[in-house]
């Protein structure tokens, strides 16, 4: 199987005349896994080892949001709007049902997809994320701005501070993770623009002020996973509250890990996720 660092970028134009850039990898499967990336993320922000591990047993399709990377249009102003555009993308591909893998803001979008069209989602991986209106989510802009300033001063990637703990182990894991994101040498995606980035931040802030979604009526199985020290979406209470919001849920909390706990513990997460998706 071709590694994620080598798969080509494709484009799709929906009936609504929206152009999406995406990458596809994995084995043939009736129900594909749609990957929804984090704030400011593009197709190069998925850790290749985790994507390759999931792709050994599943078909993964990973799109850029509108206004990001190779996708057309402008960045969408609300999390609900992002969910609507992802649903358009899924339907344009011809799928009646999918699994979702949402990380960080992608987890917010995944929840809204489930809320808007429950029958579309068979199972969901909700990672490094929390419920609508969750505690501390409204601080994402402040935390991101502070971390960006620190990253500029220290000539490091902002994810060093946002995604990992500041323990010795956390710092080592940050270096390892950031190195993996540079493995792809050709055909790299375009970085998000400043205006689109601020639009996404505003969408997250608005989402943080809204009422939680009532998932109690749904039977959708979800796997919630996070590090025990998430600085962006505080693990307590958000990961626990999100797991409790669904009737059929599993919760994994990784030790000495932050927002990107599922990538720091990639081997275990792939094993757990593949088993869950079966």
Automatic annotation (TrEMBL):
Q: Which SUPFAM superfamilies match?
A: alpha/beta-Hydrolases (SSF53474)
The secretion signal range is none
In this chain the AB hydrolase-1 domain maps to 40-263
Write out the GO MF terms.
hydrolase activity
Keyword annotations for this protein, in alphabetical order, are:
Hydrolase
Asked if Protein biosynthesis is a keyword of the record, the answer is no
Q: Which PANTHER family match?
A: MONOACYLGLYCEROL LIPASE (PTHR43798), MONOACYLGLYCEROL LIPASE ABHD6 (PTHR43798:SF5)
Q: What is this protein called?
A: Alpha/beta fold hydrolase
This chain's source organism reads Levilactobacillus tangyuanensis
